[in-house]
Amino acid sequence: MFKIKGHETNMNAGLINLYSYWRAYILYLEFRKKSKRKSIFNKIYRVTCIVFIFTTMKINRFCYLVRLQYLGFRFSGWQLQPKQRTIVSMLNKTFEFLFPDRTYKILGAGRTDAKVSSLDGAFELFLGEELKDLDSFILDFNKNLPSDIRLLSIEPVSQDFNIIKDSKIKEYFYFFSFGCKNHPFSAPFITNYLEDLNLEIMKQGSELFVGRHDFSIYTAGLKPNTKTVRTIESCCIEKNDILTANFFPESSYILKIKGKGFMRYQIRMIMGVLVQLGKNELTLNQIKLSLEPSSDLKLKTIAPGSGLLLNQLKFNG
Q1: What architecture (CATH level 2) is domain 167-315?
Q2: Could you confirm whether 135 is annotated as catalytic?
Q3: Which of 115, 133, 111 is nearest to 123 (CA)?
Q4: Annotated binding residue at 265?
Q5: 28, 147 contact by CB (below 8 A)
Q6: Which residue out of 101, 113, 148, 166 is catalytically annotated?
Q7: What is the CATH code of the structural domain delimited by 62-157?
Q8: CA dist., res. 237 & res. 269, Å (int)
Q9: Phi and psi at residue 14, in whole multiples of 5°?
Q10: What SUPFAM superfamilies has UniProt attached to this entry (predicted)?
Q11: What is the reported pTM?
Q12: Mean pLDDT score of the chain, rounded to an integer?
């Protein structure tokens, strides 16, 4: 078992936290006793007191921003799922092996789908005790992670940092080829379409997504109150000169798309629409109209996850 030196338990901090919890509980019991009457004023008083208790409790917490890379082809996505191999399940398993007595929480900057990869992913690590040696943490963690996940760096952040709200820009690449069937070894990286595609009209179509639009039909499983109006900073199709290997097809391409945040399946459905455009199954005008709130276009294609890569993630500050 790998150990990190210098991780003594902070007894004083632990006693302070225990006292804070005890004091809050006693106060809560007193407030509950005083608020048994059913008047609206007592209900408001009770809620206010509970909020006050839990917002004024002093909890000793240490926060870290961790950068990582992973090849998603053998994973069922980022988030925990029963009996599934996911990125978070591997991170949890590794942390609990290295630090069996520690309490922790891992919060990702986003949720990638099954088979989606990342060159610049991130998660926030919450701990009750400070990490004394960050270099050793990275070294020991990587020794115990599977070969298709790698931690890149770790840095302390303030308790005010919010990995979701402080996300500034996300850039995704979607790698694809068309025509001849690809070498099997390229399957984890590039989506292969056997039909010929009109690449020039696909390039024109990609430009239509730039700007502020309603992407309500470019997602699935919408939760109530989800904001479907999103802004895409840039969107284009270019020849692939980034990922190369001797088993890659002679010509492959990248859909590059950048924005503050994306909904579930949004990029893969954009790619699916562009493929339909390239097959002459849709027109440029239909794509333009699909970005209007009143659009009734039914999208039938979600591009495979294996072609999608989170290329860059930037935070505020």
Answers
A1: 2-Layer Sandwich (3.30)
A2: no
A3: 111
A4: no
A5: no
A6: 113
A7: 3.30.70.580
A8: 15
A9: -65, -40
A10: Pseudouridine synthase (SSF55120)
A11: 0.80
A12: 86
